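Appendix B. Raw example, untouched.
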Amino acid sequence: MARIFLLALLGQFCFLPYLDAITSSPKVQVYSRHPTDSVKKNYINCYVSGFHPPQITIDLLKNGQKIENVETSDLSFSNDWTFHRLVSAPFDPHDKSEYACRVTHSTLREPKEVKWGFKKSGLKWKDFKYASLFLKLCLNRIWL
């Protein structure tokens, strides 16, 4: 009996401190719930995953200012014992505002900020003209 007690005590002193030492930095994804051309009410989502320890602060930003009254999912954990959480808020993807997600976690030296990446198509008519001209020149060289 004393041997079992000694092994249990030894296990607590040797292994338990290392459980708190396991850390993992958060991965951050920012996206809209529906396609930007949808007529449905849309939401900006910030999905943060793969972090440990579980203490974390996730803020959605509009033009650098914290959005109040966001919806926050329960803190959940994955098979590898890291955590994940979703934070979302209603938004209009067609206004000129800049949206981002700011994450503060003990594994980060400074808060991590990820911007929402929607941009209207950057292609212009002149881009198509140049591409078609290039294609025409290439095809002419092949057929000549």
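End of appendix B.
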